[in-house]
Amino acid sequence: MLDTDFFRRWMAATAAAVDREADRLTELDAAIGDADHGSNMRRGFAAVSDVLEKEAPAAPGAVLTLAGRHLISTVGGASGPLYGTLLRRTGKALGDAPEVTSDQLAEALGAGVAAVAQLGGAQAGDKTMLDALLPAVEVLGGSFGEARDAALAGALATVPLLARKGRASYLGERSIGHQDPGAASAALLVGALAEAAGPNGGGGA
Ligand code: ADP
Ligand code: MG
């Protein structure tokens, strides 16, 4: 079972990964956007870490809804509302259960990803964060390690795609040949699940 502390570790591991990789995310965004994705994500997840320490929410769902709210209020740019919606909707789907199974998390994250697709109007293959999130959600009930690998493969597979949504879509054909920054950060978020679960925790709960 995944308890509240697991979800706090997930957010902390995401914040650490985003901080570590911020320069790479910004470089990816410099190629097909406006070079702010690393700083956006770093600012957002630093705020998430702060508020989770201060408020210590008492259930998995509450951790994610609080994190989502803070991403929306601290991240300017497209990714704030999109990641905020992802975490808020996932948290809402978890309800106030004190512990959840990895299948329940997979289902809730599926609802969160569907909300991102609805908000941004994007679908698979549009060269967005969805290209990492959708394949991860499909295998998440099985193992976090598999989900991490699927997200990473999905992010790398955005390189040859033409961007159809967001700022990168303004470039048209010139967006081809670059990895989508939001797909790269989504792979960090999914990879952080495996980190939060620990060395033997990748096999689901
Ligand atoms: P901005 O584009 O406003 O500068 P960021 O650079 O922080 O915001 O985030 C860019 C990322 O947001 C993109 O790489 C893409 O993955 C994601 N994104 C942008 N628009 C959409 C959308 N409509 N649907 C899903 N993801 C999107
Ligand atoms: Mg940007």
From TrEMBL:
Its EC number is 2.7.1.121. SMART domains: Dak2. One of its GO terms (molecular function) is phosphoenolpyruvate-glycerone phosphotransferase activity. Residues 5-195 form the DhaL domain. It is an enzyme of class 2 (transferase). The keyword Kinase applies. InterPro entries: DhaK_L_YcgS (IPR012737), DhaL_dom (IPR004007), DhaL_dom_sf (IPR036117), Dihydroxyacetone_Kinase (IPR050861). Keywords: Kinase, Transferase. It comes from the Bacteria. It holds the Pfam family Dak2. This is Dihydroxyacetone kinase subunit DhaL. It comes from Streptomyces mutomycini. The lineage of its organism: Bacteria, Bacillati, Actinomycetota, Actinomycetes, Kitasatosporales. The gene is dhaL.
